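Sequence design from tokenized structure. All designs in this work follow the same two-part layout: the structure record, then the generated sequence. An example of the structure record is given first.
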């Protein structure tokens, strides 16, 4: 695996391969890699000729400076994992490379996606996400880019950006990879103690219960019971639990025939903000 740190080096590495007709896959990450990230790489491999992984802890998407400061950065371990996973190229720029002085302000109209759920609780987060993902797309010009369903709203935001800006990249949304007990893998999990990790299981347990109950119970009741369970879970501070239309993320009161619904949750455990989601059908 080669490693490049500047856009110029990235372009010099990719341009000849692109000219040879090779298809390029991009897996954008913030590092502290785990099996979830590697699953995106594995997803991309058979679809493309060259897999590029980027590691960049993007400051503009953090609305909480403490979260940014505490974000894990085990770069040597990450490099080892990517080599083992046979990633072709790692792009790991410094902040100044992605945000040079005089960089123009960024704002993309994301409609209600920028007002609900994550956006409501993390103002500006999706502006930062779209800003960096646009920069990465612009730098790598991938044919395909892979994202995890774990960040459900993020996937929809990026889909929205690709459509709104008429970008030619194809997006692949990959399933959430979980621990054996169901906990969604997340780089932030390393900040949990063993006890906190157990408390965090309340999120996936509640999602699973909601999924089972949604087959026989009115949606409002499913949501009320999920909220009551999470509010009563020791060590868990709930931010939101909602069921929404899985295609638009619009509000729904009942799941109509042919409609797809998703339950989404965000909560704090031991000062760590965790998110998860599950399709109900
Ligand atoms: P991050 O490094 O957290 O920004 O994540 C980079 C990419 O990996 C995003 O597309 C995430 O949605 C995806 N990802 C994170 N956790 C998981 C997981 N448990 N399963 C699948 N994909 C994931």
């Amino acid at each position: 695996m080669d490693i490049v740190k500047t856009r110029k080096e990235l372009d010099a590495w990719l341009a000849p391969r692109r000219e040879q007709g090779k298809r390029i896959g991009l897996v954008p990450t913030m590092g502290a890699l785990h099996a979830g990230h590697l699953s995106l790489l594995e997803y991309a491999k058979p679809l493309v000729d060259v897999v590029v992984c980027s590691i960049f802890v993007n400051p503009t998407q953090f609305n909480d400076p403490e979260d940014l400061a505490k974000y894990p950065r085990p770069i040597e371990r990450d490099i080892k994992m990517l080599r083992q996973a046979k990633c072709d190229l790692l792009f790991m720029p410094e902040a100044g490379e992605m945000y040079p002085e005089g960089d123009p302000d960024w704002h993309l109209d994301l409609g209600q996606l920028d007002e609900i759920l994550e956006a409501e609780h993390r103002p500006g987060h999706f502006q930062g996400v779209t800003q960096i993902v646009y920069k990465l797309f612009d730098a790598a010009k991938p044919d395909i880019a892979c994202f995890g369903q774990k960040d459900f709203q993020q996937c929809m935001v990026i889909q929205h950006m690709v459509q709104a800006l008429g970008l030619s990249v194809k997006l692949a949304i990959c399933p959430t990879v979980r621990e054996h007990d169901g906990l969604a893998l997340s780089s932030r999990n390393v900040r949990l103690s063993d006890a906190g990790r157990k408390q965090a299981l309340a999120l996936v347990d509640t999602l699973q219960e909601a999924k089972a109950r949604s087959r026989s119970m009115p949606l409002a009741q499913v949501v009320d019971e999920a909220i009551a369970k999470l509010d009563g879970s020791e060590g868990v501070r709930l931010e939101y639990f909602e069921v929404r239309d899985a295609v638009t993320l619009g509000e729904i009161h009942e799941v109509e025939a042919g409609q797809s619904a998703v339950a989404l949750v965000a909560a704090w455990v031991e000062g760590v903000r965790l998110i998860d989601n599950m399709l109900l059908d």
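The radius of gyration is 19 Å. We note this feature because it recurs in several other targets discussed in the main text.
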